[in-house]
Amino acid sequence: MDLSAINPILLLASLMVAATPIILAAVGELVVERAGVLNLGVEGMMITGAVCGFIVAVNTGSPLLGFIGAAIGGAVLSMLFGFLTQFLLSNQVATGLALTLFGLGLSALMGQSYIGIKAPEFPDWHIPVLGDIPVIGPIVFQHDPMVYVGLAIVVAVWAFLKFSRAGLILRAVGENHEAAHALGYHVIRVRMLAIMFGGACAGLGGAYLSLVRVPQWTEGMTAGAGWIALAIVVFASWKPMRLLLGAYLFGGVTVLQLNLQAAGMAIPVEYLSMSPYLATIAVLVIMRAGRAPGSLGQSFHASR
Amino acid sequence: MLMLEKRPQPSKAWTLAAPLLAVVLTMICGGLLFAALGKAPVETIRTIFFDPLFSEFAWFYRPQLLIKGAPLALIAIGLSFGFRAGIWNIGAEGQYIVGAICGAAVGLAFYPTESFLIFPLMVIAGILGGVVWAMIPGILKVKFGTNEILVSLMLVYVAEQLLASMALGTLRNPEGMGFPGSRNLAKYDSASSWISENAGMHWGVVAAFIAVIFAYVILSRHQFGFNVRLAGQSPRAARFAGVNPKLLVLVCMGISGGLAGAAGLFEVAGPAGQISIDFNVGYGFTAIIVAFLGRLHPIGILLAAGLMALTYIGGEIAQSNLGLPGAAIQLMQGMLLFFLLMVDVLTNYRLRFGKGATV
Predict the structure, then answer these.
(1) ipTM of the shown complex
(2) Please, what are the domains in chain B?
(3) Is A264 left (phi over 0), alpha (psi -120 to 50) or beta?
């Protein structure tokens, strides 16, 4: 084994890339859960976003349009979940699972003729001044634009939940939907919007995998990333900024094990590949979750 | 305007009718999907749902129904206990894999000795493997309050890697010329789970029927079954009735893990034959659909497992005869669960028309 082959700067830089799909999917789910809805279909929305984004990007040649397509794809799929859970009052756990199974099948069907094609690349861009700083430059400021879009969304969500009136309403709906309803807020409308935002973010996260990280389409390519995103929301105690910590921790483990595989460590490859999932479990155990939103996972039915 | 009004009690008629309506809706939507894919919709639906049972080659497909249905029924029966009590073990796929690995390992350890004791030992190992794998999320939930959904699911991915490592390393056939995969257990008499290969009968089919009967008795006649149902409907009432919620979590996880592990063992020692990288085909996830479609009721699960097995077999026929993509079947199975959840609103709510209906 040759540990010196691992370049710490490259390692930290690829950590940010590895964490981005998780950040995108998790921040969307965080908003959904803060509105009191538990959507376990993140994996299904992510993979649908991955295939939608890939198809749009290949056909238009523009990764940007691909990401937009992925967000729309994810949001449309999430509306199916929203319709069932909010209007037909179905069980959220079961419906989320159904969404994942459905999304996996749907994406496999849609992506059939796109296997083995390479995705169009983002045009090279360079952030002036910041990108030229030694050490920090390559780690933080030499990535594709979506890395920063992900971070921007996290900051925006944080500000939205903390400072805006709409964010306050969203939190009220999530904490106690009966009270929010009594105050005259439209519980279902708020939740539908949150669910769609979650779907769009999950779609973006999926597209980041198929367009930037891999960049190819393969069946089942999200490989549990959506579930890890769900775990990270719990880890973050439903707080946007802590979400970054969780995602980078996860990204770190992923990147480190890939590097160790490449460096030819004595542990078999399969055991190294387990480590991100084991790390997620360990994190769930060690970090006692904070208080979940009060109405999380409960259906709301106003008429009585 | 259309309004929903909560029924004082779930409608019995709709409880039975909802799965049937969901199947019909799935057939209609599936037909539209097939038409969109450029296949003749009616012919494709007929190929999937009727040909395996009634065509001239049905004698060949009917045994397959038992082979595909048995693991689905076995896993779904186990899941139904937890689902009723609000304990969501969705990592049955992982428990299925680990059960198969443990059971196969015991069988391979005895190779080439012949003894009638080997197969029972394998079954025990398979069950224990599944139980241990399911106990991880169970104990973590009880001790640390971690979410069993996420942990059990993470362990599926861990189990898949473990399976790869076993197929490529520890359990690889030493006479297999370096190819991945273990010795063929189905061809090793003492370890084979086949009773009659031509009839599709193996011990997993027998176990599935026994599980259905046991589950039926336990749920309808036994104190434990009552506790499970009570905990699902009202956790607070269950606590006053003296139900230990932690014990309930462990027992429900144990039952589902054990049955999933057993299903894995019967599969690896019979229809699959060997531990290989692509041994698992998603039965653990499809069983979730089976459990819901069967209304978490043992008899219902048996019927639902038969129906899902039918879509697997019919899907394969449609794939080879009509060129239907395999993913379309997977999509249709997901659609079925969606429609079921959608129709289920009628079980718990009444539809009312007009504005003043819900005052």
Answers:
(1) 0.86
(2) 38-324 (1.10.3470)
(3) left
